[in-house]
Amino acid sequence: MSGAPDTGPHPETGSGPNSGQDSLPKPWPRHGAREGANYRIFRSRWDDLENPRTGQRMERVVLETPDWVNVIALTRDTREIVIVRQHRFGSGGPTIEIPGGMIDAGEDPLLAAQRELREETGYVADTWTSLGSVAPNPAFLDNVCYHFLAENAVLDEAQELDAGEDILVATLTAADAVAAIQSGEISHALVITAMSRALDLRLPNVDIRRVDGRERP
Amino acid sequence: MSGAPDTGPHPETGSGPNSGQDSLPKPWPRHGAREGANYRIFRSRWDDLENPRTGQRMERVVLETPDWVNVIALTRDTREIVIVRQHRFGSGGPTIEIPGGMIDAGEDPLLAAQRELREETGYVADTWTSLGSVAPNPAFLDNVCYHFLAENAVLDEAQELDAGEDILVATLTAADAVAAIQSGEISHALVITAMSRALDLRLPNVDIRRVDGRERP
């Protein structure tokens, strides 16, 4: 599993004459960088960059952010999904999410996933599968978020919440999770990217392969 | 369409005795806020919050971020997906994305989507469908990202790139887009959340409804 943003060429992508497979965007030369503020959950940095299209120099902010991890944990007896509910400071309201968090320095993503599941929910699981990873926002975040599937989860321990957490634990069936994503009730992008690797999240009547009911290749 | 993070109760969510549907996380009282640095693409703010579980006060950073929009645009003749390739400052490398960007102050999300498609790619489309929205990261971003489907896209105008952009335009079939997401070549979380509303992105052999090949409800 290697889901880090690929900085090399993408030779396999595209098809047909308009796929752009022979034309990659030029890298932006970086002439320097200066440290910005430290926000604990990320540090800011200002890169001195040159637009290869125009030659113009400009500073752009990058948030140096630890990698993250989240987990679709299925209960052993019912295969329901373990969810966490918490008040989120960005949105200023409650969310429904799957367990997850920051990977500690030097920590293996799988061990971080197992730790976050245990600390946030008290569940432990015996079967773990990588679901790959995504870039939460390559425009200004330098990190990736690893997704895992954990099966046969059982409630084995007490939550270990840190001072900045107040988390309720519940479970959802897969069908209810799909409905909650389609309705917008589950809205966290990184929960949805994890779910998309194991559940069909298509909206009713929206399928870009089809035209007028005909299946396209 | 109202995809903003819901700050109200979630009465419909959950099923069964462990669903937590009667227990919502408590809001965190906010005792104050102070302005932080302005990064142009977002402003930072420090909220003075109280953990309702412990009563402990703590400051937490929120990035006040304009809402975003992105577009799955399908070409009129082949229904291929219009993609943009650019060097991203956060990841420090090239990405494959769908067109999108920031919604201007007071701008309607649909108009922003039409503008971003036109400016970044030169394509215009005549059929627009809302695919809802997601919260890019409710932990520290206060914004939402609106997703749209645009059909019958034709290359009608020249790109209008701003000084901070250098964007290549290409197209991908739906099948190639799914393969690129599953392989990690397309890794931007908000591209994947948009795609998940119109394409089945499940990984081979991963389906959380199934156990040992049997379909679960």
UniProtKB/TrEMBL annotation, chains A, B:
Protein's name in the database: GDP-mannose pyrophosphatase
Any one GO CC term of the record: cytosol
Organism of derivation: Saltatorellus ferox
Cofactors, names only: Mg(2+)
Keywords: Hydrolase
Family designation: Belongs to the Nudix hydrolase family. NudK subfamily.
Stretches the record annotates as Disordered: 1-33
Xref: CDD domains: NUDIX_ADPRase_Nudt5_UGPPase_Nudt14
Domain Nudix hydrolase: 64-194
Reactions performed catalytically: GDP-alpha-D-mannose + H2O = alpha-D-mannose 1-phosphate + GMP + 2 H(+)
Gene name of the encoded protein: nudF_2
A single BP term in Gene Ontology: ribose phosphate metabolic process
GO molecular function terms attached to this record: hydrolase activity
